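Regression test attached.
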Amino acid sequence: MDPIIVEAGVLARALEESLREAGASDESVEACVRALMHASLLGVDSHGARLVAHYCRVLKGGRVNPRPAVKLTRTGPAAAMLDGDDGLGHLTAYRAAEAAVEIARESGVGAVGATRSSHFGAAGAYARAIAEAGMVGFATTNADSIVALFGSAKAFHGTNPLAFAAPVAGASRPWLLDMATSSIPQNRVLLYRSLGRELPENVAADAAGVPTRDAQAAEMLLPLGGADYGFKGAALAGVATLFSAILTGATLDHAFIPMVGSQDIATPRGMGHFVLAIDPARFGGTAVFEAGMRAYLDALRASPAAEGAGPILAPGDREWAVEAERRANGVPIDPDTAAFLRLS
Amino acid sequence: MDPIIVEAGVLARALEESLREAGASDESVEACVRALMHASLLGVDSHGARLVAHYCRVLKGGRVNPRPAVKLTRTGPAAAMLDGDDGLGHLTAYRAAEAAVEIARESGVGAVGATRSSHFGAAGAYARAIAEAGMVGFATTNADSIVALFGSAKAFHGTNPLAFAAPVAGASRPWLLDMATSSIPQNRVLLYRSLGRELPENVAADAAGVPTRDAQAAEMLLPLGGADYGFKGAALAGVATLFSAILTGATLDHAFIPMVGSQDIATPRGMGHFVLAIDPARFGGTAVFEAGMRAYLDALRASPAAEGAGPILAPGDREWAVEAERRANGVPIDPDTAAFLRLS
């Protein structure tokens, strides 16, 4: 079935209402809607509105605390830990990002490790929040095992995203990178399965760890870098785990209760995240940073395209164009989610 | 011609002597030899002893200051800038790493931006130094344009490495990732050219930006992720530039005087680097970190191998095995470098 096109404001209100009905506190609702709208407007549909039914289910089931008392503990001039009280990861992560910015304003750099959190949607939402405060932002999380190690026959890491963002003077939107450390997201496999399409080469493997293009047979993803350079993607997934789980003491990828498909929706999953804010004022200075960013982006966008390729884009350019289009024309919502939100 | 096998201590002394002859100060020699031996022992031969002739040439030519007065300016409780005084990048970067550790000891996190530096060899040397001080380390630099943007017909970024390291309790060597954000290093192209071998697919392009497997025709590298996902590698190269050059105010990739092949070996190149140290004691705590790292590595190394693949390795495992072998049996040195060092 075709998606239903929903005006952004209407979608945000519907998300808000459904989360409120599931018992979420005002601040939890606000953070979750903000993160879901970030993803839905930017075209990251896997991490947007379609997750709301899942979040409502785990809020009602007890896995996620609908009214958490998030607690920040400052552990040093540049560091803090944040206890998410098993609430929605979006609230934990936005609070962590805000604290990192505040700390960086004082100290030049602010790093916040978060524990007792849950799925936080798109990592880019939190890197973006830091960039919107005028700083360079980094946000990461680990996630359920679904990506094989390089040369392995079994899933080990999650799709473990690395997100970076940086403010661009004179532009309303930051430079924004939000990448999974697998080549493709799990959602692509599910989509290709339903469409009966073949997967690209070297992005997924069957239950025995043998690369397959058959979306039905795909049981795990392969790390960024494919058959020859997948050791790099696997190591970058490890960076996400190192910062989010090992530094913070949160759950390792292979030890998570599965996000989806587990009978247990009452036990908290104990996720960790990590965010970092860096204030350009304490390095080369704000003016130098702004000029450098501008010179860099101008040179990048002026690069000649290869034959048959479109214009050269900076990270985020494609997403901000989707946002402008969707703000004007509405957001496509899959039929199941539209029904859940009573929009169809 | 076959490489010459040189005992590690003999090699280190020969490197020391040649740099001293080129006029380098004691601390410059020490830092450079340490970084070159890191790379040569770990099997990163592209960034090891073979660079010494180049370094001596630019030390004598005036591009690199043989007796720099490196200057650290603390800009905040968690931040500092380091002026390399146009000396060898190895000295700048080790000083930056030491300062980052000292700052992180006080503040939980320490970030140091370096400017007026030069080629620093392998980024992993500095992340390793931070891990050896008991902290999580990150080190990066930008470099001369040689890697095309995704879909572009022209080189833009350097091979811009990202290096991360983390201490492993009870092990003498850290977890260590040191990766170029291109699929392969430029050195591989040169090697395949001399061997008349075909390149792998989607790692290099000809002068028109068209992917080629002909090492002779290869004029630029392609970013990690290949034909389909190269936007990720290109964005990660941008992360290196963002931290090393834009935050610090140093030279952008496309604006460098070429490291090799320029007539001008008298003008400093104004390179920037960035290092970050994170003290686990200020996040989940040292005991939690040590236990988490151990649990993570045990699970990783116990992962089943895919059919035909070797045992599963953590980042650094392969390199530390090479180090042990080379410490026992000597380091292979290419004939030109061996002649330069008067070892052949």
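Expected vs. actual: identical. The first helix of chain A runs from residue 8 to 21.
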